[in-house]
Specification:
single chain, TIM Barrel, eight-stranded parallel beta barrel, two-stranded antiparallel sheet, globular, ALAD_AS, Delta-aminolevulinic acid dehydratase
């Protein structure tokens, strides 16, 4: 008889042989920065998450650094929007100013800048629109321009989330041409058209004004297509790739991580976060146990980087375990 239970006899033994261990250094915490002054807006569908104006951002950054989290993913919410998303690539845009503030005051904090037009366009789509069609090639120069402006502001990693074909090459060429050869690109490579994004769209004011994003984000029924997307992004110059969302796509994370040697990130998205928070608030689940189980599953599937709104709580729990 194989007595496998011998390795489960107590907590110390279980920790000794544990195959997958979460680390604070693997966590990335998303933050939302909004125009205005003295703003700390709670996001009703995402308990514990807020929009911050730049002058209130320090209180969040203090919590982040105190918990030992070294990386953040930043989303900017502009005051004005237009058809071409000009706020995304303005040198004094909300995201650019926020990054400068962060780098001036928290220089060791690694800043990942999301690159997309959806938060900045009046129609809410991730690319330029003509006659109801989202344009691919015409959007690429704007994404490249936004990437250069964010790199100039001090971003360490550029993270294109738009899902336009060819955008990684356009961004890499623009960064290199402007002297940013060392800036890393984390591509949202396998980004699915998902119902799990609804709370984020409230937080970032980025819901599409018409139709949906199914012509550029991936069909959630497709797994093998993700390999083609990742392969194309790596060939074009991506340094890291991402699967988004995470929990419903663990099979994709695993396949990508086993196929490619580049670091794989997984985005534990807003809907996944909000469902846990809602169930915990009703007393239906143990929040800590569920979150740690979920994130461990994401890492076990092959993610080396986990972007999650739970990061502050998880970092605190992991520190408690070390004591």
């Amino acid at each position: 008889m194989k007595r496998l239970r011998k390795l489960r006899t107590n907590e110390t033994m279980r920790k000794l042989v544990r195959e997958t261990k979460l680390q604070i250094s693997e966590l990335v915490y998303p933050i939302f920065v909004i125009e205005g002054e003295n703003i700390k807006n709670p996001i009703p569908s995402m308990p514990g998450i807020h929009q911050y104006s730049i002058d209130r951002l320090e209180e969040e950054l203090e919590r982040i650094t105190e918990r030992g989290i070294g990386s953040i993913l930043i989303f900017g919410i502009p005051e004005h929007k237009d058809e071409v998303g000009s706020g995304a690539y303005q040198e004094d845009g909300i995201t650019q100013r926020a990054i400068r503030f962060i780098k001036e005051n928290y220089p060791k904090l690694l800043v990942i800048a999301d690159v997309c037009l959806c938060e900045y366009t009046s129609h809410g789509h991730c690319g330029l629109v003509r006659n109801g069609k989202i344009l691919n090639d015409e959007t690429l120069p704007l994404l490249a321009q936004a990437s250069v402006s964010l790199a100039r502001a001090g971003a360490d990693i550029i993270a294109p989330s738009d899902m336009m074909d060819g955008r990684i090459q356009a961004i890499r060429e623009a960064l290199d041409a402007n002297g940013f050869i060392d800036i890393v690109i984390m591509a949202y490579s396998a980004k699915y058209s998902s119902a799990y994004y609804s709370p984020f769209r409230e937080a970032a004011h980025s819901a599409p004004g018409f139709g949906d994003r199914k012509t550029y984000q991936m069909d959630y029924a497709n797994g093998r297509e993700a390999i083609l997307e990742v392969e194309a992004d790596l060939e074009e110059g991506a340094d890291m790739v991402m699967v988004k969302p995470a929990l419903a796509y663990l099979d994709v994370i695993k396949e990508v991580s086993q196929t490619f040697d580049s670091p794989v990130a997984a985005y534990n998205v807003s809907g996944e976060y909000s469902m846990v928070k809602a169930a915990a608030a009703n007393g239906w689940i143990d929040e800590k146990k569920i979150v740690l189980e979920n994130l461990t599953a994401i890492k076990r599937a092959g993610a080396r980087i986990i972007i999650t709104y739970h990061a502050l709580d998880v970092a605190g729990w992991l520190k408690e375990e070390e004591l």
